[in-house]
Amino acid sequence: MAALRLALVQMAVGSNKLENVKRACQLVKDAASKGANLVALPECFNSPYGTQYFKEYSESVPGPTTELLSQVAKECKIYLVGGSIPESENGKLFNTCSVFSPSGDMIGKYRKMHLFDIDVPGKIRFQESEVLQPGNKLLTFTLGNCKIGIGICYDIRFAELAQIYAAEGCHLLIYPGAFNMTTGPLHWELLQRARALDNQLYVAAVSPARDDKGTYVAWGHSTLIGPWGDVVATTEHSEETIFANIDMSQVNEVRQNIPISKQKRWDVYTRPSICDHHEKSDRSKKTKDCSGYDIDVNKHVD
Ligand SMILES: O=C(O)CCC(=O)C(=O)O
Questions:
Q1: Which of 83, 8, 99 has the alpha carbon at shortest distance from 49?
Q2: Which of 39, 108, 176, 226 is most buried (CB neighbours < 10 A)?
Q3: Three-state SS for 247?
Q4: Is 112 a catalytic residue?
Q5: Alpha-carbon span 280 to 60, nearest angstrom
Q6: Using CA atoms, how far apart are residues 3 and 128, in angstroms rounded to an integer?
Q7: Complex ipTM, two decimals?
Q8: What is the CATH architecture of 4-267?
């Protein structure tokens, strides 16, 4: 296939759901017309971001929003990572990313696995778990020779998730996200570079544009990090789409030059010894927590 050209759409999100989705589709078309064959939208792109909005804006997946995403993916003949939207299923709510192939088929959906529950006194308190349920399945898909894994925002803080995707053979991780003005400046890029460097792969994170008057003010700065830990493309906080090519030779090169995945000392740091330590430090936890990487992966190969 042709070179993989990624577009990260840092779009402005307002309070009108249909307008948000139409805007997203228009920006996806613009990105495709400029040569992108893989386009990603931000976290919570059809709704303002906040626990008070999730129920009102939620819908089923597949549903009205994903139908429009499917149409635009098909019309533009691109792969589309549909950011995330509040999803409802049987009375439960999830923060869900759906991914589409160039034929408009939904490859799969990924539900945010680590819910964003933080409390930084005087700065920010956010408790997604008050209204959302966590997902428990990974999602990968393959485009040419590039395997891609999906996470959502807070998921990027969990090195284990990225490590599992790397072990599954991923070369690029895409995190629709919406960091904030407290954690964004210090952590957003650092976390992306950390995940990229640990796993020697590309990491993309795509945010909504900043709305200073919104109830949640996003940090913006959508970014692509390369497998050497370098910033390949980035932006400030206004609405903008950034473009970059994914160069698989960079992934192969760094993995050959610095072969850390073959140098791991699993004989020393095996999961059971982590579990022993974990159990000693918290006797109330069940050993079930330490059952290893026994996790469901939805796979799609093109
Ligand atoms: O981890 C953070 O600091 C921000 C996470 C976040 O905004 C999210 O999960 O939506």
A1: 83
A2: 176
A3: coil
A4: yes
A5: 43
A6: 38
A7: 0.97
A8: 4-Layer Sandwich (3.60)
Q: 183: CA distance to ligand 1 center in Å?
A: 8
Could you tell me the distance, in angstroms and rounded to a whole number, from the CA of residue 163 to the centre of ligand 1? 19
**pLDDT computed for residue 267 by the predictor:** 87
Which tokens go with 99?
């991914």
- Does the CB atom of residue 216 touch ligand 1 within 6 A? no
The per-residue pLDDT for 290 is 38
Q: Residue 52 has which token pair?
A: 């008070």
**180 CA to middle of ligand 1, Å?**
7
Whole-prediction pTM: 0.91
* Residue 94 beta carbon below 6 angstroms from any ligand 1 atom: no
Question: φ, ψ for residue 82 (rounded to 5)?
Answer: -80, 50
pLDDT(62) > 80: yes
Torsions phi, psi for 34 (to 5 deg): -100, 15
* DSSP line for 234-284: E--SSSEEEEEEE-HHHHHHHHHHS-GGGS--TTTS-HHHHHHHHHHH-TT
> Is omega for the bond preceding 62 within 30 degrees of 0, making it cis?
yes
pLDDT in tens, 221-247: 999 999 999 999 999 999 999 999 999
Q: How many angstroms from the chain centroid is the CA of residue 7?
A: 14
Query: What mean pLDDT comes out for the span 99-112?
Result: 98
Measure CA 2 to chain center.
Answer: 24
SS3 label, residue 49: coil
CA–CA dist 1, 110 (Å, integer) = 25
Does residue 273 register a pLDDT over 90?
A: no
Residue 153 annotated among the catalytic residues of the structure:
yes
Please, what is the Cα angle at 25 between 191 and 175, to 5 degrees? 15
Is residue 160 part of the annotated active site? The answer reads: no
Which atom from ligand 1 is nearest to the alpha carbon of 43?
10
